[in-house]
Amino acid sequence: MWHCKQCCLGQGGVQLGLMGFGLLLLLFSSVAGADSIALRWVPAASDARVEGYEVHYGLSSGVYGWSVTADDQGAATDRQEIDGLEPGQTYYFAVRSRGKSVAEVSAFSNEVSVEIPTWNEFLEIGEVSIDHEWRRVDLKRAYRDPVVVAKPLSANGSDPAVVCITDVDPTGFLVRVQEWDYLNQSHVTETVGYMVMERGRHQLDDGTWVEAGRLDTRRTDAFEKVDFADAFASPPVVFAAVTSVNGSDVVSTRVRRVGVNGFEVGLAEQEKNKPRHVTETIDYIALEISSGVMNGRRFEVGRTPEEVSHRVYTLAYQSAFNSPPVLIAGMQTVNGRNTASMRWHHKSSDAVDLWIEEERSKDAETAHKRESIGYFLIEPGN
Q: What is the total count of domains within the chain?
């Protein structure tokens, strides 16, 4: 957890007599081995003696072994990014203003203390059993701005359905099975994997880059361009989920044109409905294709060829799992435009059966063109 205290400047000696200002932590983005934070404060721009500011920081309260100068806008400078911080360490920050002479400085502000998280503190993965009733998923730690995705459903029930998520807060979220509007909304218990990540761009211990983000859109049967914060070396896989319930009609997401710089995403209602929906929130997580071990748990991120349709497709894992892994998966293409979602069954330590399931609100036809599927697999953990 990070902690922030209000800060104000003092006076005395050769210190500048300045009005107080507050130091406020606005942005905290985690990157294992090279973490950075951005500090922001209210500048003392009304004092003509101020030329800029100094940010001092260290590993003990009141003991500042490092400092950086912040004066790109002179007295109006109000922020500074600090990088190269060590995951798992707690840092202490303070700011003071300075004049033309290096000896002409104000007193230090009060401290801001920040604990830099490791990868397993900004990422949580699990599996949950749900039916048509809302279920609360409590997270193992408190997040500042969690992004949540959960898909696809198992296939214990035969009626087409999607995963519905809402009420995301720092300690958990609500989730349930939601059948399409033309059905009776009563559904048997299914299993779904979920992933929660602090919003932002992160790097795992093995160098894998991931990005978690959010957008609001009302585009239905249409697509909105989403740009990544930074380019990936190669196209990642993208998992997207609606995390609000603003409209009364059931809605899901479709993703297409995933590239190194971004992707396109849109909403989809059942085929019988007119293509319009109120604005909803979409959370997304993008991961580089990779495999390895995270905190003792073997994982695999991959993408299938465009071969997954309404017919069962057996995904054979490239990694050797000791037990059936948690599965998160989603379509990466939109070759078939009919409203559809994914289902799975027969998940083992070696493979899982996947297929694309169209709903039948408009007609009984359920054949779907072949799509590419992105997937994330990880061994279960405590």
A: 2
Closest C-alpha to 89, from 25, 32, 162? 32
Residues 39, 181, single domain; the answer is: no
Residue 294 CA: distances (Å) to CA of 45, 151, 239, 377: 47, 21, 19, 12
- For 363, the token pair is 């007609």
Write down which residue in 86, 115, 144 finishes a domain: 115
Q: Mean pLDDT, 10 residues at a time, over the chain (382 residues)?
A: 32 42 42 61 83 93 93 89 80 90 83 72 89 96 92 97 97 97 96 95 83 96 94 97 96 97 97 94 97 87 98 96 96 96 97 97 96 96 66
Tell me which residue range forms the domain holding 132: 120-378
Q: How far is it, in rounded angstroms, from Cα 113 to Cα 116? A: 10
Domain-ending residue, one of 115, 141, 164 = 115
204 and 161 assigned to the same domain:
yes
Same domain for 268 and 311: yes
Cα–Cα dist 36/30, whole Å = 7
Note whether 203 and 260 are same-domain residues.
yes
Q: What is the pLDDT of residue 141?
A: 84
What the block records as the tokens of 351 is 């493979």
Residue type, 314: T
Query: Are 169 and 74 found together in one domain?
Result: no
Q: Cα 251 to the chain's mean position, in Å?
A: 20
Under 8 Å CB-to-CB from 278, ≥6 apart: which residues? 218, 246, 247
Residue 92, beta-bridge partner list: 58, 113
* DSSP letter assigned to residue 119: H
Q: In which region does residue 286 sit, left (phi positive, over 0), alpha (psi from -120 to 50) or beta (all else)?
A: beta
Torsion angle of the four alpha carbons 333, 336, 337, 338, in this order, in degrees rounded to the nearest 10: -130
Q: How many CB atoms lie within 10 A of CB 224?
A: 15
120 DSSP assignment: H
